[in-house]
Design a protein that fits this description.
Elements: E1 2-4, E2 8-12, H1 17-32, E3 37-41, H2 48-57, E4 60-63, E5 66-70, E6 73-77, E7 82-86, E8 90-91, E9 110-114, H3 124-128, E10 134-137, E11 140-143, H4 153-157, E12 163-167, E13 171-175, E14 189-192, H5 200-209, E15 213-217, H6 228-239, E16 242-245, H7 251-258
Parallel strand pairs: 1-7, 2-3, 2-8, 3-4, 13-14, 13-15, 15-16
Antiparallel strand pairs: 5-6, 6-7, 9-12, 10-11
Helix pairs in contact: 1-2
């Protein structure tokens, strides 16, 4: 298994020639701008001349049969070999996954809330949690909210009645190069390397788990990853996720959006 850490990763499941060709052109432009680019696709149906030009310029093309998301890593399996790619700036043109896999139907998002004073540290909740969302933290158990599905199994089995569930009101993804530093109250805010690093699958899952999701990216033409912020906004629009373009000096704009 090899590991790659490019500046930008293109992930395509749709093999239509027009879509792939546009993505190859975008990848080529980024390479010419000095970025390292990995292009993951089931097949490359772009014109041979364009494909050869991009490959010679330095775009790394990898064919895959299956892609698995492991936190901020992609594991691409080609039938014989697995390549792990760190997705700092993930570009997923059009449908990056079948619609049924990225349903954006909202539901009440709940997570386990643990009262450390009542926790007997018996590990009962840890044993029944099928999502690996619980773990020891000092003298009590802790809930990892990003992993919790709010199923309630832990609360049901807790002998000390130390666990309850509550609605998670909002999840904010904020670019560490701009918007993140303009947010005064960072509770519920996840710092991300680029607006484009939060792909379709991540946003869709957040829509399922949180009552509200906001993506805060750089203002136009300020993204150090060139098209990362714009790609992030495109993904957000397709999924009905709120987004705001701001910088660290635009606190008022961010405050107005996040306090709605």
């Amino acid at each position: 298994m090899s590991n790659l850490m490019p500046d930008t990763v293109f992930l395509l499941t749709d093999t239509r020639e027009d879509l792939v060709s546009d993505a190859v052109r975008d990848a080529l432009a980024l390479v010419r701008a000095g970025q390292s680019v990995v292009f993951l696709s089931r097949s490359v149906s772009a014109p041979e001349g364009l494909f050869r030009e991009a490959r010679m310029a330095g775009v790394c093309f990898i064919r895959y049969e299956k892609v698995t998301f492991v936190r901020d890593m992609l594991e691409a399996f080609d039938g014989d070999f697995t390549t792990r790619v760190k997705a700092l700036n993930l570009v997923t043109p059009e449908a990056a996954a079948p619609a049924e896999e990225v349903s954006v139907k909202k539901r009440d998002a709940k997570v386990a809330v643990i009262d450390a004073a009542k926790c007997a540290f018996c590990y009962s909740c840890y044993r029944v949690c099928t999502h690996r969302a619980l773990g020891p933290d000092g003298d009590a158990m802790k809930c990892y909210e990003d992993e919790c599905h709010g199923c309630g199994n832990c609360a049901a089995i807790c002998p000390g009645q130390a666990i309850s569930t509550e609605i998670v009101p909002a999840k904010v993804y904020a670019c560490e190069n701009s918007a993140y530093w303009g947010i005064f109250d960072k509770s519920g805010v996840e710092r991300i390397p680029c607006g484009g690093s939060v792909g379709r699958e991540i946003l869709a899952e957040a829509r399922r788990r949180y009552a509200r999701v906001v993506l805060a990216v750089c203002v136009d033409d300020a993204c150090k990853h060139a098209v990362g912020g714009k790609r992030g906004c495109q993904q957000a629009e397709r999924l009905g996720v709120e987004y705001v373009k701001a910088s660290h000096v635009m606190e008022n704009i961010l405050r107005e959006v996040l306090q709605r």
